[in-house]
Specification:
The chain is α/β, with parallel strands linked by helices. It has two domains: 100 residues, Formyl transferase, N-terminal domain (Rossmann fold, 3-Layer(aba) Sandwich); 93 residues, 3-Layer(aba) Sandwich (Rossmann fold). Helices cover 36% and strands 25% of the residues. The chain is built from six helices and nine strands, in the order βαβαβαβαβαββαββ. It has a seven-stranded mixed sheet with strand order 3-2-1-4-5-6-7. Strands 8-9 form a two-stranded antiparallel ribbon. Helix 4 links the parallel strand 4 and strand 5. Helix 1 packs parallel to helix 6 and helix 5 packs across helix 6. The longest helix is centred in the C-terminal third of the chain and has 26 residues. The structure holds 5-O-phosphono-beta-D-ribofuranosylamine. The site of 5-O-phosphono-beta-D-ribofuranosylamine has 15 residues, from helix 1, strand 5 and helix 6.
Length: 197
């Protein structure tokens, strides 16, 4: 399964995928990594792994619709079977979503705490258990059909950063396990239900 991975930051989820893809038995390969900004560690990780990269910045386009078109063109050049949003901090518009299936990983248990501050919002709410969700991207914010979830207990002395770091540990394994199974066993979506195998 050919993957294009989209990143905006550190890229530890990307790194976990790159490491898994080094084994041919894993069943997937990262054919390109795209970003919405320059100079991020995620792009450097791709370059170190010898994976082609591209940058598509909103500010280089006249409108968000133009950016959506440019992002689609950049992704389509690599003919992915699946686009993986791994810490990509942009909402992607219909052109890309209508052409390619896309999954996103979110640091909370959807449908709770959508948006950019999933870990901090869960902590502020006072939940005792939170986690990470892998879902198929639709036109909402963290609302798509759920592929997998993993839980993390909240500690009394957690800060948003410490909680997010612990979530990211399970998030990476969940991402790697799920993408590998999707690649090797196939997957389908019926309504809100994602089935692997
Ligand atoms: C992940 O927790 C992701 O869910 C969130 O941002 C983080 C990205 O981490 N949106 P990294 O760039 O993969 O290290």
């Amino acid at each position: 399964m050919r993957l294009v991975v989209l990143v905006s930051g550190t890229g530890t989820n990307l790194q976990a995928l790159l490491d898994a893809c080094a084994d041919p038995a894993y069943g997937a390969e990262v054919v390109a990594v795209g970003a919405d900004r320059d100079g991020i560690e995620g792009l450097a990780r791709a370059q170190r792994a010898g994976v082609p990269t591209f940058v598509c910045r909103v500010r280089d386009h006249e409108s968000r619709a133009d950016w959506d078109g440019a992002l689609l063109e950049a992704v389509a050049a690599y003919e992915p079977d699946l686009v993986v949003s791994a810490g990509f901090m942009k909402l992607v518009g219909p052109p890309l979503l209508e052409r390619f299936p896309m999954v996103n990983t979110h640091p909370a248990l959807c449908p709770a705490f959508p948006g950019t501050q999933g870990a901090a919002d869960a902590l502020a709410y006072g939940v005792k258990v939170t986690g990470a969700t892998l879902f198929v991207v639709d036109d909402g914010v963290d609302t798509g059909p759920i592929v997998a979830q993993a839980t993390v207990p909240v500690a009394d002395d957690d800060t948003p950063a410490s909680l997010h770091e612990r979530i990211k540990v399970v998030e990476r394994s969940m991402l790697v396990d799920s993408i590998g199974r999707m690649a090797r066993e196939g997957w389908s979506v019926t309504g809100r239900h994602v089935r692997i195998g």
